[in-house]
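Recap quiz, item 2
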Amino acid sequence: MSSNTVLEADDFVKGLQGIGFDFFTGVPDTILGGIIAHLTEERLYTPAVREDEAVAMAAGAYLGGKIPVVLMQNSGLGNALNVLASLNLIYQIPCLLLVSWRGFEGKDAPEHLVMGETMTTLLDTVRIPHRTLSQKTIVDDLKWTATTFMEKRIPVALLLKKGIVKTIQP
Amino acid sequence: MIGPEEGVMQSRAQAMAAMLELMTDQLLIVCNGFPSREACKLRDRIQNFYMIGSMGATAGIGLGLALAQPDKTVVVFDGDGNVLMSLGTLATISALRPKNLIHVVFDNEVYGTTGNQPTYSRVVGLDKMAKAAGYKNVERVWEREDIVYEFKAMLGDDGPSFLLVKVNEQLEDADRIALSPAELTKRFKGSVT
């Protein structure tokens, strides 16, 4: 999978399953559309209505023995922040946050610009480890995700820019 | 709507004690604030998960747990303030229809832990909202006998079920949870898997 070509959604999902993830919930974004479509087809995806609800469901699933992923647009990080801070981080309940990076380098609709610019600072501030996914480093990125998740037992974020994983819209 | 008469209503701790007595191996998620402290004092079990923060997330956690453990019954002890904060979760639960989820809401019509500021549940019927969303069983109770009868019925039936328990504002004198949050996770997870 290490090249510059756009990753297929099913390969990417296989990669996540390969390191143990088996519960997928979230709120959609265009960048995540291909992944969600594939997860839905495989009957692996449980939609949530808000990002904090998705993080809560993932926490419950973890308590029940699952290894959860929460998919969201970065705007949803704002909604999820309280649950991440006052549940996951203090209870040591991990999840993978697969966050689409809208507003990257200021090239997006106005509503995405503030979060697009400040997201990594925000994650650093609340001490959520993060890494930006790329085709070239995907194998390492997944290895890092698994290791950090297991060692720290806290939420870990993988940031997904446009054009890394194939989506359903051109 | 027939409402509770003066003097008939239980305190949340009284209602909770009656329900905890009926529980065997069910998993229990308790919302933040006094409800968790009261449940811990009344009947601490390794299958109890106490929340100390993340208000509004209780039912979401219970839902994720119910989906992950479909063969176990999951009970959620929630509050009116918590439910009002995440009304969307009523829709998610109703749409996903987990058979093994019982959502109990102790409704004292106030934010009791922070000084009894009124909530909107005095005028907005949370049972009606759950019914409209599509929970399979919905009941509204306030007398001890009815609380026990309906909870017992829900424990023996497929859900998702919603039990609105109208209670008075009285708080039980209960200490903060002694275990750390990380210890609570470890203990609870160990009881499940």
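Chain A has one domain: 9-160.
Residues 92 and 152 of chain A are 8 Å apart (CA to CA).
End of item.
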